[in-house]
UniProtKB/TrEMBL annotation:
Residues 204-236 are annotated as: Disordered. Coiled coil: none annotated. This is Uncharacterized membrane protein. It comes from Halopenitus malekzadehii. Keywords: Membrane, Transmembrane, Transmembrane helix. The chain crosses the membrane at residues 12-32, 52-73. Residues 226-236 have a biased composition (Basic and acidic residues). It comes from the Archaea.
Length: 236
């Protein structure tokens, strides 16, 4: 039964992400293909089965061209001035500025490409207990490392912490392995982990319980002997 459960769990770990990925790709594909403006660029001779694919290709080409054009414009002095004016204007809007700044920060973080962002580390929060965090590539003015510690299994929330560098140790694993462990709540198999059989744990628990009971019995006998030696009523 233990082997069957492990095989079933391993299959779910492989198939569920693929199914979710296919569903997301299909959702994006359908929404891009249904953009109204793209239909105006369709030639009349285009076959009906090819129309959705044609719309997606045209949308991607237009989007890529727009991104490159805006990026080239941002390299100029006028582009930087326009960006600063846009940021300043949106930051005066209470609700939209949160979404705007969060989206901008997420894109900047994803495209930064620094090595520190791909470096999972261990942080000993309490004595003998360590947690997985990720370097952000930033430091405070007093030299502390800025880390992001995600929650499990929802990595979209977590804690931004500042810690002394000597309290941080590298995990020796890739960011994919660390993320897989967090997303699976520790159940995913990894080359840096050792599986422990449940029967072995139960056996160890029973043995430990027996040992504790035996130890308590020995202590009780010893305490009784000490009481007999020190009790004046029982002394010869």
């Amino acid at each position: 039964m233990s082997t069957w459960k492990r095989d079933f769990g391993s299959g779910l770990i492989v198939l569920v992400p693929l199914i979710v990925l296919l569903l997301v790709i299909g959702w994006i594909y359908r929404h891009i293909a249904s953009i109204p403006l793209i239909s105006t660029l369709e030639p009349e001779w285009l076959l009906e089965p090819v129309v959705p694919l044609y719309r997606v290709v045209i949308a991607l080409v237009v989007f890529t061209t727009l991104v490159l054009a805006v990026g080239y414009f941002m390299r100029t002095t006028l582009g930087r001035i326009v960006e600063a004016r846009i940021d300043e204007s949106i930051n005066h809007i209470p609700a939209l500025r949160v979404v705007y700044n969060a989206s901008k920060l997420a894109v900047e973080t994803a495209l930064s490409g620094t090595e520190d962002l791909q470096n999972p580390v261990h942080l000993e929060t309490w004595k003998g207990i360590r947690m997985t965090a990720f370097k952000t590539g930033k430091k405070t003015r007093d030299g502390k490392l800025v880390l992001f510690m995600p929650t499990a299994p929802n990595i979209t929330s977590g804690y931004v912490i500042e810690v002394e560098p000597e309290r941080v140790t590298d995990t020796g694993e890739s960011v994919e392995e660390a993320m897989t462990r967090i997303l699976s709540a520790g159940f995913a198999e990894s080359a840096h982990q050792v599986s422990v059989d449940g029967d072995l744990i139960d056996g160890m628990g029973e043995g430990s319980t027996d040992a504790r009971v035996a130890g308590d019995a020995e202590m009780t006998d010893a305490e009784a002997a000490d009481a007999d030696r020190t009790d004046p009523d029982t002394a010869p």
